[in-house]
């Protein structure tokens, strides 16, 4: 899990100190809370806008600018999480968290080509795997904020309570409830990353060969495949349930796409995944949850708005 970072010691210029030492932490926090890099960037921008809206005297009166920024960003996220549930009622198909590439593959240079600045990269660990984020998304907004702040970023419940607007005891209960959700959804140990990469590689090979039997052998009999096109890309609107059903559906996808699509191995949210390029452009990012030696879940993100970090402008 991510350990709690302390604010910079240089308080001579609180605004500069906050910019230099807190931005990355805020991006990491907001992405875990919202599951969207675009929304996380908006939250951080709004947080700094509120900081700079204060006078120099008001800024200097704040004992810990870092703590102030985290509190404001967390509260903005809490409000967004509440409204997100309403927005998703009109979302076309399933909503999947925004996938992130390996740091070396990020598009860099906010002021040059598009993409995200080096200092804003999200730290990839077990708290940002697609499986983990999907469970986080099933929580109530208060559960998610309390759990992420305490269990991931190591904030004491007293500070969490001030952010969430509840008592420390209530926040402790929220985090406990969130942990139960995670334990219930957790897969058996997936094994080392190298083993997972091997399974994903075998899946890629079988998929390219349209080998239904081989695909079935790599999928858990009760596997699920979920896709997110957001109404902006063609995909199946309902999850495909069952290893054989997924194998046949994906073999058909390979048949229809033909030579226009190539599949590349990559890292998605810190674990082995695949990218589909169609006519040279990234069309889909696939994240996998592997239990033992079988694929338990596939998440296929096709919404082009969620593939921004993967594209070179």
TrEMBL record:
Pfam families: Sigma70_r2, Sigma70_r4_2. InterPro entries: ECF_Sigma-70_Domain, NTF2-like_dom_sf, RNA_pol_sigma-70_dom, RNA_pol_sigma70_r2, RNA_pol_sigma70_r4_t2, RNA_pol_sigma_r2, RNA_pol_sigma_r3/r4-like, WH-like_DNA-bd_sf. Keywords: Sigma factor, Transcription, Transcription regulation. The keyword Transcription applies. The keyword Transcription regulation applies. Residues 20-84 form the RNA polymerase sigma-70 region domain. Residues 131-182 form the RNA polymerase sigma factor 70 region 4 type domain. Interacts transiently with the RNA polymerase catalytic core formed by RpoA, RpoB, RpoC and RpoZ (2 alpha, 1 beta, 1 beta' and 1 omega subunit) to form the RNA polymerase holoenzyme that can initiate transcription. NCBIfam families: PRK09636.1, sigma70-ECF. Belongs to the sigma-70 factor family. ECF subfamily. This is RNA polymerase sigma factor SigJ. It comes from Streptomyces carpinensis.
